[in-house]
Design brief:
Number of domains of chain A: 2
Number of strands of chain B: 13
Strand order of the largest sheet of chain A: 2-3-1-4
Largest sheet of chain B: 11 strands, mixed
Order of helices and strands of chain B: HEHHEHHEHEEHEEHHEHHHHEHEEEHE
CATH architecture of chain B: Alpha-Beta Barrel
Helix content of chain B: 40-55%
Number of helices of chain B: 15
CATH architecture of the largest domain in chain A: 2-Layer Sandwich
Shape of chain B: globular
Number of helices of chain A: 5
Number of domains of chain B: 1
CATH topology of chain B: Anaerobic Ribonucleotide-triphosphate Reductase Large Chain
Number of strands of chain A: 8
Structural class of chain A: alpha+beta
Distance between the termini of chain A: 18 Å
Strand content of chain B: 15-25%
Order of helices and strands of chain A: EHEEHEEHEEHEH
Distance between the termini of chain B: 51 Å
Helix content of chain A: 25-40%
Largest interface: A-B, 28 and 24 residues
CATH superfamily of the largest domain in chain A: ACT domain
Radius of gyration of chain B: 21 Å
Largest sheet of chain A: 4 strands, antiparallel
Shape of chain A: globular
Strand content of chain A: 35-45%
Oligomer: heterodimer
Amino acid sequence: MTTRFPHAYVVNVLSNDHPGIVASVGKAVEALGGNIDACSETVLGGYFSLVMIVSLPKSTEPAALVKAIEASGDSVAAYQVLARCFEAERAAQPAQPPERFVITAFGADKPGILLKFSQYLAGKDINIVDLYGNRQGSDFVLISQVEIPPRWDIAMLQTDLDELARAEGFTVRLQHENIFVATNQLRLSLSRSEPTAQSRGIDGLTD
Amino acid sequence: MLRTEEILSTIQMLHAEHLDVRTVTLALNVDDCAASGMDAVCRKLRQKILTRSGRLVEVCDRIGGKYGIPVTNKRLAISPVSHILAGHGHAAAVAVAKALDSAAEACKVDLVGGFTALVHKGITAADAVVMNSLPEVLSTTVRVCASVNVASRKAGINMDAVAQMGGIILRIAEATAEQKGFGCAKLVVFANIPEDNPFMAGAYMGAGEGDAAVNIGVSGPGVVGSALRRRLQIGGRLTLNDLAEEIKITSFRVTRVGELIGREVAAELGVPFGIVDLSLAPTPAVGDSVGEIIKTLGIERIGAPGSTAALAMLNDAVKKGGAFASSSVGGLSGAFIPVSEDAALAAAVADGDLVLEKLEAMTAVCSVGLDMIAIPGDTPAETVAAIIADEMAIGVMNDKTTGVRLIPVPGAKAGDKVEFGGLFGSASVIDIRCKGASSGFVGFGGRIPAPIQSLGN
C-alpha cells in the first residue's frame, strides 16, 4: 500500500472502551498534519484496542507520536500507545498467498491450551492471521484462521492436532476456509489461482 | 476474513447436526461397451468402470477430509443397461449384472445404478430382457440397483409395463425370500425418471448427459429439523412463513456444502460436474428423519390431517433454498418419505396413524413416491400394478417425478413387524385395502394416454 504522506508509522492504542476514542486519536493525528491510512479496531472484555498506519508530512520520532496521541486521552494514562516506523514492504502480499484454513477447538478450559496450540503451529511455520478465543462457563472456544504453507499434507496436520487435543482433553478441527465461505457468504469460493481482495493486504479489512 | 458467528454456525451444522455429503455418484456412459459377444461386453464394462472410477473413493475421502465433511457413500451410475443388452438374452443380462457388481466391488463403491429400462411408450426386446432378469439379478448380486421408467408426461402410462412390473416385483420378493423380500429395495418403478439423480436405487446416466459426470446428493433432515427447533426455541410469534424461511436458509447452506465438495471432486477426477441434488433423504439413524420435521411443524401424529400441507411447505422451501445455492440443481431435490428408512414414518405406520392412502396423497407434494414400503406377501400382482398405476398417474398428471419401491414380504400380513437387519432396521407391513379388486382395470393393458397438458408444442 502507498501512504498519503512519506513518513509512516504503525500505532497501537489500548484503552477502556467508550465512545470517542477514535475521534480524539483522529484529532491528534490531524494536529500533526497527518493522515490515518489504515485502521483496525477490536473490543474485548470492555477494553478497546486500535492498530493503525499513520503517515506524516514531516519525519518524527515514534516516541513523539506516542506522546501526542496519549495526550489526547481525557485523563492521565487513559490511553496506552505504542508506535514504530512502518516498513511498506511488510504489507506486500506474496504472488501466491498460502491457502487459508480454519482451526476450531472446544473443551474444558485450563492454562496452557493456547500455548501448546500456538507452539505447534509455530513449529510448522503456520501463521495465525485471525484469532478469537473465549471462556464460556468452564469451557473454552478457540477459533483461528491460519495460513498453511503448501508443503504440508493437511491430513497429517489433522492427525497431529487430534493427538494434541486428545492429550489435553479437547476437540479440535482443521478445515479449509472454503466450507465456511460457501455456507455463509454469497460469493464463489476461492480457488488457489484466484487472487482476492483480502489477500491484497490491509485494503480489504471489511470481510 | 470470516466472522466468528459464521464459523460457529457452520461448525454447529456440520458437527453437532452431523451434516454429511450423502453421496457422490459418478455417472458413466457405457454405451461403448456394446459388443456382439456377452463376454466382450462384460470385459469392456469392467475395464471401463475400473479405469474411470478407480480413484473415486480415494478422492472423495481426501476432499471430505480437507473440509471436515464425510462423504458417506460413493456410488456409480451407468447409462441404461438395456442399451448394451440390445441383441442379447437373459444369460447376458445376468452376466452383465455380475460384471457390474464385481467392478463396483473392486472400486469399493457400495452401489451401482443403471440396470435400467425406459419403457414409457413401448418395450423393446432388450427392455424385456432387463425386466425379466430382475428377479435373478437382484437376488444374485449385492450392489446392482435397477429402475424401470413406465410413464412420462409426453408418453402417458404404459399399462402393459405396469402390469408386468406388478408380477416382477412379486417374483423378486420370492427370489429374495430369505432376506424378507429385500431384493425389491433395489428397484424403483418411475414416472418421469430423472436423468441425473445421484440417489439409489433410481440413479442412472441419462441420454444427452455426456460421457461422464459427478452428481452429488446432499441430505440433512437432521440439520433442517435442528434449525427449526432452534428457531422455535428462540420464541416470539412465528408463522408458517417464518418456518418456511428457516427451512429455505438451512437448505441453502446444506446445498452449498454439496456444491463445494462436488466441484472439487469433479475437478480432481477430470470429469464434468453434473448437479447437486438437495434432497432430505432420511436414514434410520436417530434425528435423521423427515417425519420428525413434520412433527416439529406441529403435526403431532404423522398421517393426521395437515401432513400433506406440512410436507408441501417443506418440499417447496427445500427446493427454493437449493435453487439459490447452486445453478446446477437437479435430480430429485426435495423431501423424501421412504417409510422404512425414516424412524418416525415407520413408527407412524406401525401405530396405524399413517396409511397407504395418506402416503399416496403426500407423494403428490414431495420428491419421491411410495418408497421403501413393506406390503403383505400375498398382495396380488394386479394390485401391486394398480398401486404403481396410481402413483404414475400422480406423476404424469402433475408433471413431476414419482416412483414406487414396494417390498412384498413373503408370508407377512398387514401389521406384522419385519426385521430387515443392518442399516434398514425394521418395518411394519402396511395394510392394503381392497386387494384384488383392480384386476379388470389392469387387465385391459395398453396405454393411458398422455394428458392434455403435454400438448405443449
